[in-house]
Design brief:
334 residues; alpha/beta; D-Maltodextrin-Binding Protein, domain 2; 2 domains; 11-stranded mixed β-sheet; 14 helices; 11 strands; 17% strand
Length: 334
């Protein structure tokens, strides 16, 4: 009887382990709709269920720190957010040959705590009725007095701008970055919003309606507008092509320290970085693949090729507090 009970318990534990191994709990700040193609494709290939919980980043971060957290993987936008999760000790390292080979070193954590899976560029947009592309060159050049009253920016509270400024500090130094920011503030357009907009879409629309001539946003917001309105009267300019390249950031992921399905989570991340995973991610979004050999969505390819800044994105967190400080000192506030 004791032997039978022992065998039954062993069998039950094995079945439970196999069952758990057939699912991965994914917590994300992205919508389920944006991830559905990749999740469906992976399930079809492997039979593994990717169970998705979607929340705003602040809520997601709180849940990852709670005792009730059951997440295996956190998938969020921006290296600043990914590095914050790592800084809190919530990710575990994964030394993967596949991820190391497939993902450029600039787009992953130096300690292998998180990995970029797709690329978004934050660059300059302009009104072609009032600005000629040959007048544009770099982010820093937007501080020139010739742009006075013509510049619009997104709120400094945005993680996208915090990361942009943090990586500038790492790249060109604190003094030059602060000088640039003071010039930006001096050049803000006189709009009801004082030249500061709550999101990239509102900023692009302000350029289109002539409230300002130039601004800085993520490229995919522009793609979303173009999909609905191909005649949208705003153009893109790739910043810093003659120097260190356009600022890029990532959608990325890491495996949680307390993950229950570690092996399954590892296999899923490896697959996301593979050619197959990258092709699906690229085709189903307006973001660029981490693999330059993988073609972007044709609606993104029309934006043209550009040189990316190669600075490691961990700097988006390392210099984030300093970025906030010098933004405040420069008067870049809501």
């Amino acid at each position: 009887m004791k032997n039978y009970l022992l065998i039954s318990l062993i069998s039950l534990n094995l079945i439970t382990s196999l069952s758990l191994a057939q699912e991965v709990q994914l917590y994300t700040s992205r919508s389920f709709q944006s991830l559905e193609p990749i999740i469906t494709a992976y399930h079809k290939k492997t039979g593994v269920n990717i169970k998705v919980t979607t929340e705003k980043y602040a809520d997601l971060l709180a849940n990852l720190q709670s005792d009730n957290n059951i997440a295996d993987i956190a998938l969020v936008v921006d290296a600043g957010n990914l590095a914050q999760i790592a800084q809190l000790g919530l990710f575990q390292a994964y030394d993967s040959k596949a991820l190391t080979q497939n993902i450029p070193s600039a787009l992953r954590d130096p300690a292998n705590l998180w990995f970029g899976l797709s690329i978004r560029a934050r660059t300059i947009f302009y009104n072609p009725k009032t600005v000629k592309p040959e007048e544009l060159s770099s982010y820093a050049a937007l501080a020139d007095i010739s742009w006075k009253g013509k510049l619009c920016l997104r709120s400094p509270k945005s993680i996208y701008n915090k990361s942009l400024i943090a990586t500038h500090i790492a790249d060109i130094g604190e003094e030059h970055t602060q000088t640039m920011l003071k010039g930006w503030v001096a050049n803000l357009a006189d709009t009801p919003e004082k030249g500061i907009f709550p999101n990239d879409t509102a900023l692009l629309e302000a350029i289109a309606t002539g409230q300002c001539d130039i601004g800085i946003t993520n490229h995919y917001y522009y793609n979303r507008i173009l999909e609905k309105n191909p005649d949208f009267p705003v153009k893109l300019f790739w910043a810093n092509q003659a120097t260190n390249g356009t600022h890029v950031n990532v959608l990325g992921a890491g495996i949680l320290k307390n993950a229950k399905n570690v092996d399954a989570a590892r296999l899923f991340l490896d697959w996301l970085s593979s050619n197959t995973g990258q092709e699906i991610l690229a085709k189903s979004s307006f973001e660029y693949s981490i693999n330059p050999a993988i073609a972007a969505n044709p609606k993104v390819s029309i934006l043209g090729e550009f040189k990316q800044n190669s600075l490691n994105l961990s700097n988006a967190w390392i210099y984030q507090d300093k970025a906030i400080e010098i933004m405040n000192n420069a008067g870049y506030k809501d």
